[in-house]
Amino acid sequence: MSDSVSLAVNGEERSLEVEGRTLLVHALRDGLGLTGTHIGCDTSQCGACTVLLDGRAVKSCTMLARQAEGHEITTIEGLGQDAELHPIQRAFVEHHGLQCGFCTPGFILTTADLLSRNGAPSDAEIRHALRGNLCRCTGYQGIVESIRAAGAAS
Amino acid sequence: MIPAATRYARASDLDHALELLGEPEAKVIAGGQSLIPVMKLRVARPSLVVDISQLDLRGVREEGDVLRLGPLTTWAEVAAAEAFERPALAAIQECALGIGDLQVRNRGTVGGSLVHADPASDMPAVLLALRAQLRLRARDAERDVAVADFLRGPFLTDLGEQELVADIAIPIPPEGSGSAYVSVEHPASGFALAGAAALVGPDGETVALTGVGATPFVLPAGAVRDAISRSEIFGDRFASEEYRRELAAVVAARALDAARQRAKENS
Amino acid sequence: MSDTLIGVARPRIDAPEKVTGATRFAADGYVHGLLHARPVLATDAHARIRGIDSEDALAIPGVVAVLAAADLPIASVGTDRTSEPLAREEVVFAGQPVALVIAESEAAAEDGAEAVVVDYEQLPSVVDVEAAMEVGAPLARAVEETDDEAGDLESIHAGVDHGQEDDPSEELSGNVLDRITRDRGDVEAAFAASAAIVEGTFRTPWVYQAYLEPQVCTAWLEPSGTLVVSTSTQGSFVTQRELARAFDLPLERVRVIAEPLGGAFGGKFALVEPLAVGAALALKRPVRLVFTRSEDFAATNPASAQVTHLKIGARADGTLSGIEARMIVDRGSNAGWGVEGITSLLVAGPYNWEAHDIRGYGVQTNRFTFGAYRAPGAPTAAFALESLLDELATELGLDPIELRVKNAVVEGDIGVSGNPFPVIGVREVLERIREHPLWATRSSLPENEGIGFAAGHWPGGLEPAAAVCRVNSDGTMTVVTSAADMSGVNTGFAVIAAAAFGLSPDDVRVVTSDTSSGPYAGGSGGSKVTYTVGAAVLRAAEAARQKVLAAASQELEIATDDLEVVDGEVRAVGAPDRSVTVRELAQKALRFGGIYEPIEGHGGSAQTSGAPSVAAHLSHVRVDRETGQVELLRHVIAQDVGRALNPALVEGQMRGGATQGIGWALFEELDHDEDGRLLTGSFLDYALPTAERVPEIETLIVEVPAPDGPFGAKGIGEAPVVGAPAAVANAVAAATGQRMYELPMTPPRVWKALRA
């Protein structure tokens, strides 16, 4: 019951076998070995699975892989350029925006969407934008500071 | 976590979509933010998922004294649409900005949420207060239905099996109108424990509630507290009936206050 | 030994790989021939399994096996989750795993699990902990089986004595598994001499650790017969011991690899490994079990609900007199251990009392197997104590913080355990937070706003540990420990080693080794890793330093006493041009025909003096009386951290802990219906603090060095959560005049209390 699908991921056309029911997050992790996108819940709330679809943050656990055909997908692995960290990644490192790191790729990609629309968000705007990303370790403040710094840097 | 087995087809246009819906257990998917979660719970088990995202049903356009909102418009697009930036329609963007989260708003659609008909979803209250109408398309027919008649019960609508929402028509309120949406959210799910949309204008005041009954509903005319005391309100373990009744009155009062303020600014 | 590297805020050493998604968490690695497991969970809270029908499941393409308890080669006897990972005959909580479906894909495994039919005979269940204590209550567990060896897990979290366990005068049901009694002096006389006495009953719910990474384990047999277990765990050696015991395997045949942790907070100790291992041994193929979030909610080991009856008194001048407590701990179906010991100790807080009479009861019910969650038994005890201390202050007309300062313990004071307190910074922390400008505003706030204060402490843990520091041929150093990095300890180790040896921290890598070759470390938890493993790292670095000095001494022909190691270079004191780099020396050691010993050091630690930590909080809230919503405007936390090796990481622990305390206070509750079925089994019903609802948290680091800690540092991960819920509750009381006796203070509860 398997279909062949072609997905544009991190700037490359990738081919893989999926079922009709295969979620995008499983296609990325198991089909393409891109394990930086994480699974933290099964009710579409935690945001650990966040990727960019045509530059917009979406929850890859709440999309079928087949729905993603014809769109550009960016995962955390596709954000930096070779050995260079993306400015948002660098900000999270320098401003202590992570502890265990499990939620971190999701937060970084949500940030990419937010900053592309609003380059200098207020703290309240940042916190509202993070409603769909849960963190259990940091208490969020390091994350907010990292996003503020990333906004200021770009 | 993983849906039951299903097939996938992408519709190229409205007629193709309606044809695909001829299969008995087929279900439409737009943004998937309502359907995929219930598929993952295996509560919904469609044999075929019909992806209508490519259909030309997005955007807002003004047609005389009506705004026509395409059902495939995402919450993010609704929240950013210039057409809704007027005090009379402030409730729409106020509501849209609070739905779900940033990621959900990028994918979730107005039509998808409406058809899913969760009794605690926010936008139906706004559409009810604004007296919106839906245009439904079947293979050989078309009909208009008021949102109030479309919502039949929890997760239940008047939509036929081979029918799609083609259009949401929102009458533009007259000058001197204002609207607002106020809700108290469940701290976990974000759904409304009680939400109220208010429209205030020269024709009078309308309040619609969500989150407290079998479907979102318009309050009968008259004093808000009286109307609520005569309405059927549901409670649960987290929020009792008594609490919700009170909450409904509070959000209704706050929505009315804000709508009246905007109406004043709009005159 | 250079001190200038200590106290510098640096990024975590693992941050670059985490922000690029390069970290391989336990569910990420590729294993050839991997099978996937999906548990079948019981739906009744108390039942007997009559039969398991797997015919339909086995017919599903891709399903390889459906395993029941008898199919797992378990040798140990007992009802703990290691000895009984699948219910044998009796189900004791709804959510308990009863079967395991193994398949070629996760999707097939889920299809299979759906198709398994279990025939249950329902048994009477007992879900309310107070009802469970009464004589005549149904027994939560009909079949009594205990394994004395299963006590190991308790000691990981806090080595605590149990006081005297007696009192034949109390008639209680067989569900009461443990009774702790702690008393000294005459509490009645103390109350009689008091100017004020206050009491109350405080309730806290079952609370879920909610680590973002669900529990996961992969197990397989190597051709040599070694069992390899790759798992998200807080303790590789602990897990190795448990698995060896359960499956009757020699230790050297069990290799446990602790993968990077996606959060744990106490919940990841040998819970899913027995399932994956049992399946891998039964089928002789690699098996991975990744819990879905729903399964993690239903079938893991959250924190116990508690009911605390507390009565305290004080003299007119504020001297605390007597404390009387009855603390009932809902262990759920955990027969092996409970927090009644710890919570009955901590309810006295870091304060001196003239007399105490404290009892703790560990009671079984048909609910989850209880597990540890960040300072187990502490936030619940502090909620009761710190709420009543505020009431005492009001009755006596004293400043709430002044009341605590007056009774704060110092080193040498005897606690309710009967043991003297080690160095502890109670006074310093209280005074620091009292100076904060926010406290001075508490009487001049707008209506419906309030500021609350509360303190809390955690005793810290002790366990011997070892570490290795190895200099590489490029002059860098590799630090090796077996401590799972739950709280950022590796970044601390790098700085300790760098400072002790004489390198830049940028030249130090830290590796977490597994049980096959790593130096020993106990489970990460209990607030002890920095203190104990860090001390071992310090000694290992010093030992390596001796080696490099010996080599340099020979190389430069200068006595070791006249040499120093600075920034990767060994040089003569006072004549820095006479030098040789560590790299050069290493290259002369690490080659064929080399002339120096490899520059490596091994270090061990076995501290016997504990290092408790105290944290105090100020919470500023605004209450919406019409809806009952509590808005957090600001939060301040001061904590005695010994020595902040890296202030950024210490602040992260303070904020993270305070935020979890905010979760306890306002949002989090695992709720069962009267039949013991879980009603809040997902993040749709169980509210975690979100960025929008958590305020800015200001951190005040207080340093009272721990005498036996590396550079004075100690474990600080748990203290920050302890006083936070009470601070928010005290703030709500200040804002509304209404005291809340139950957590979480949800909008409906606050609304109802305001109208009572």
**Largest sheet, strands/sense/barrel of chain B:** 5 strands, antiparallel
The CATH architecture of the largest domain in chain B would be 2-Layer Sandwich
What count of domains describes the coordinates of chain A?
2
What's the tally of helices of chain A?
A: 5
Q: Given the C-alpha coordinates, what overall shape of chain B results?
A: globular
Q: Which word captures the global form of chain A?
A: globular
- The side-by-side strand order for the widest beta sheet of chain B comes to 4-5-10-6-7
CATH class of the largest domain in chain B: Alpha Beta
Strands of chain A, total number: 5
Q: What would CATH call the architecture of the largest domain in chain A? A: Roll
The helix-and-strand class of chain A reads alpha+beta
Molecular structure report:
The complex is a heterotrimer of chains A (154), B (267) and C (756). Chain A has 5 helices and 5 strands; from the N terminus they run ββαβββαααα. The termini of chain A are far apart. In chain A, 32% of the residues lie in helices and 18% in strands. The model of chain A has no long low-confidence stretch (mean pLDDT 96). In chain A, a hairpin with a 2-residue loop joins strand 3 (50-53) and strand 4. With 154 residues, chain A is of the alpha+beta class. Chain A folds into 2 domains: 2-79, Roll (Ubiquitin-like (UB roll)); 87-153, DNA polymerase, domain 1. Chain B folds into 3 domains: 7-51, Uridine Diphospho-n-acetylenolpyruvylglucosamine Reductase, domain 2 (2-Layer Sandwich), CATH 3.30.43.10; 60-171, 2-Layer Sandwich (Uridine Diphospho-n-acetylenolpyruvylglucosamine Reductase, domain 3), CATH 3.30.465; 178-265, Enolase-like, domain 1. Chain B contains 10 helices and 14 strands. The longest helix of chain C has 28 residues, at 529-556. Chain C is globular. Residues 147-151 of chain C have low confidence and may be disordered. Chains A and C meet through helix 2, helix 3, helix 4 and helix 5 of A and helix 1 and helix 18 of C.
Short description:
The complex is a heterotrimer of chains A (154), B (267) and C (756). Chain A is of the alpha+beta class and 154 residues long.
Features:
heterotrimer, A: 154 residues, alpha+beta, Ubiquitin-like (UB roll), DNA polymerase, domain 1, 2 domains, 5 helices, C: 756 residues, Aldehyde Oxidoreductase, domain 4, Aldehyde Oxidoreductase, domain 3, 3 domains, seven-stranded mixed beta sheet
